[in-house]
């Protein structure tokens, strides 16, 4: 059996996040607090990939991400693929797409922003520019490069 099959199909039920750029797997785990939940998680780092050279992979058992959750991963891993596994079979497979907005997950880096003072859910509008992904705060309307969030988290 080819290696990639084994890597993807090793869990009975759950979600496999594949094609994460090497180095981003740990960040995604921390950022989405995946390891704070009760589900068994397997992480593969620096796995060999035909297309990416090296990649990370995260397997979360007994959990299926909804598309909104999955697309938040695109902030960190724009080429990630989501494999939904049921009874050791891939029953659904799709690539994440960058969402138009991201709610509640990120804190605004602007310390004067009202979202850091008031009990509101943060919200950022997402767009892509030549220099990368840009997030614009819904409240203070400041724009931040996505790389800044990677450094903060
Ligand atoms: Zn703000």
Q: In angstroms, what separates the terminal alpha carbons?
A: 38 Å
Uncertain residue ranges: none
Which overall shape is indicated by the principal axes computed on the Cα atoms?
globular
Please state the structural category.
Answer: alpha+beta
- Give the CATH class of the largest domain: Alpha Beta
Question: How does this structure look, described?
Answer:
InterPro entries: Asp_carbamoyltransf_reg_N, Asp_carbamoylTrfase_reg, Asp_carbamoyltrfase_reg_C, Asp_carbatrfase_reg_C_sf, Asp_carbatrfase_reg_N_sf. Belongs to the PyrI family. GO terms for molecular function: metal ion binding. One of its GO terms (biological process) is 'de novo' pyrimidine nucleobase biosynthetic process. This protein is of the alpha+beta class and 153 residues long. The protein has two domains: 3-95, Alpha-Beta Plaits; 101-152, Aspartate carbamoyltransferase regulatory subunit, C-terminal domain (SH3 type barrels, Roll). Helices cover 18% and strands 39% of the residues. It is built from four helices and nine strands, in the order H-E-H-E-E-H-E-E-E-E-E-E-H. A five-stranded antiparallel β-sheet has the order 2-3-1-4-5, sandwiched between helices. A four-stranded antiparallel β-sheet has the order 6-7-8-9. A hairpin with a 3-residue loop joins strand 2 and strand 3 (53-61). It is globular. The model has no long low-confidence stretch (mean pLDDT 88). It binds zinc ion (ZN). The site of zinc ion has 8 residues, from loops. Zinc ion binds at residues 108, 110, 113, 115, 137, 139-140, 142.
